[in-house]
Specification:
517 residues; alpha/beta; Rossmann fold; nine-stranded mixed β-sheet
């Protein structure tokens, strides 16, 4: 109990420190662009003594960068790169695309098929910079990651007044009337092969060569015709945004474009990252006492028989595979209006219904029934979820906004309700025997989910973009398993565990996936 209290105080101290670091660093402030688009403007230099007041425009206005995020991300995910660019002397306007983050405008239908579907959002950002008193609106580069990379590369062919384009881990088409200027194609060593191939092909096309050699500069930046291809070692599709090597390559490219004088290396420190990492580690450890407290508030159930765990894994696998086959005809949760999230929820919903039907046929639903049991489990589940939400949300300032808009609250509630049948069946089948056995079965079951999702991608049922999110999904599953193991070890209440799992995953899907309506 004392150790839990100390750990809680440590986490609160880390969160307070993270909040102070978030307010500090390069001068920055939130604003709203045309059409109600939320954005954050970062400027070189430290914040003034009163962060509520706008800074005075500098005598020498810096060049500006529009920074666009990827699919299911937002401007918080690009904030480390934005801060590093600002510390290197550039103004950065980081935006939330429609349907993402705090942007309440719906994600455009058919956006996968239209390379210019996000051009209106980019145009609003560029137009703002061109008239801003804080930047040199005549010197602008557009930069984007993943989906944002594709958007900025295409936008570079539609706006002739840009000085450069930086697609990070992406960039597919160039269909506008202009040739994009001064393009740096930069991607991660562990990016999907498709991104390597398309980036290399586009670089060769713009450079007018048969094969583009990584690291070599083709053309003259002063004439707007330069092209370079860079592979960042030791990074993947997500971590490239936090790589100091990638940031330095981008800064070097911007310096070439704008002729920026450089006396010494710019600071690439973002002290928020270390504090956020420590806070996340403390949060994961604190999940154990949160689980114990939640379990102590609910009913205590006799230990479940250890028999049947292997059979449960087999049933889970068959149900998920059958769900993939059934989803080929359409996603039953498409009304959820969560782009891609509706497919994930549909996959688990169909599998859950199949598993519950099997349990009912065998007469094994007894421990999941009983109104009194459910009433006694709902309160502790809400307690655990609120504790998770309150403690995890502040860490999102360096990863992804975790505070939902009203539309996302509704979507998360519906998603949690649709996920509940699956997690009830999951827990009834796998959460058996003692705590260690139940934990190993739970981890194995979550591994099966990830493998079947990958199979669904190859089958063309699950969108390819989900593969880029699998490391994050796996980490969320790991955190959920820590809490589930703690609850089960204390109370054996699988209903309580399933309720918390559904609420947690529904929340994460709702805040991350683009909202269509």
């Amino acid at each position: 109990m004392v150790a839990s209290a100390v750990l809680g105080l440590v986490l609160l101290g880390l969160l307070a420190r993270l909040g102070a670091l978030e307010a500090g660093g390069p001068s920055h402030g939130e604003l709203e662009l045309r059409g109600g688009q939320p954005a954050t403007l970062y400027l070189p230099g430290e914040p003034g003594p009163d962060p509520r007041r706008a800074p005075e425009p500098a005598a020498e206005k810096p060049p500006a960068v529009v920074l666009a995020h990827g699919f299911a991300s937002d401007r918080a995910g690009t904030s480390t790169l934005a801060r590093r660019l600002a510390q290197a002397g550039y103004a950065v306007l980081a935006l939330d695309f429609r349907g993402h983050g705090a942007n309440r405008r719906p994600f455009p239908e058919g956006s996968y098929a239209r390379p210019d579907s996000l051009a209106e959002d980019l145009a609003a950002a560029v137009d703002f910079l061109r008239t801003s008193p804080y930047v040199d609106g005549s010197r602008i580069v557009v930069m984007g990651h993943s989906m944002g990379a594709g958007a900025v590369l295409d936008f570079g062919t539609r706006d002739s007044g840009l000085d450069g384009v930086v697609p990070i881990s992406g960039g597919w088409s160039m269909l506008g009337p202009f040739t994009p200027p001064n393009v740096l194609f930069i991607f991660a060593e562990r990016d999907p092969q498709r991104i390597h191939e398309v980036s290399t092909a586009n670089a060769a096309k713009l450079a007018g060569v048969g094969v583009a050699v990584p690291g070599q500069i083709y053309g003259d930046p002063a004439r707007g015709r330069a092209v370079r291809l860079v592979e960042v070692p030791g990074t993947d599709h997500t971590t490239i945004l936090f790589s100091e090597i990638a940031a330095q390559e981008i800064i070097d490219w911007l310096d070439r474009i704008f002729g920026m004088p450089r006396h010494g290396e710019p600071s690439l420190r973002d002290p928020r990252l270390q504090v956020a990492g420590l806070a996340l580690a403390a949060f994961v450890l604190l999940l154990v006492p949160i689980g114990f407290v939640a379990a102590s508030l609910g009913p205590r159930i006799p230990e479940r028989s250890p028999a049947g765990g292997a059979a449960g894994l087999g049933a889970l696998t068959l149900a998920l595979v059958a769900s993939i086959a059934l989803l080929s005809a359409g996603a039953p949760a498409s009304f959820l209006s969560l782009q891609v999230g509706d497919v994930v929820v549909s996959l688990l919903l169909v599998a859950g219904v199949l598993l519950l039907a099997g349990l009912a046929w065998r007469g094994d639903l007894g421990e999941l029934r009983g109104g009194g049991r459910w009433r006694r489990s709902v309160g502790p589940a809400l307690f655990a979820f609120v504790a998770i939400y309150v403690l995890l949300s502040p860490i999102g300032v360096v990863i992804h906004r975790l505070t939902p808009t009203p539309e996302r609250v509704a979507a998360g509630a519906v998603a949690a309700l649709l996920l509940l049948p699956f997690f009830l069946a999951f827990e009834a089948l796998l959460r058996r025997g003692g705590g260690v056995r139940a934990c190993l079965l739970g981890l194995s079951g979550r591994g099966v989910i990830v493998l079947v999702v990958i199979a669904g991608v190859f089958a063309g049922v699950v969108p390819f973009v989900v593969t880029l999110m699998l490391p994050i999904l796996a980490f969320v599953f790991l955190m959920i398993e820590v809490l589930a193991t703690a609850i089960y070890a204390c109370s054996r209440d699988v209903v309580l565990v399933a309720l918390v799992e559904s609420l947690w995953l529904g929340w994460i899907l709702a805040v991350a996936m683009p909202i269509r309506a």
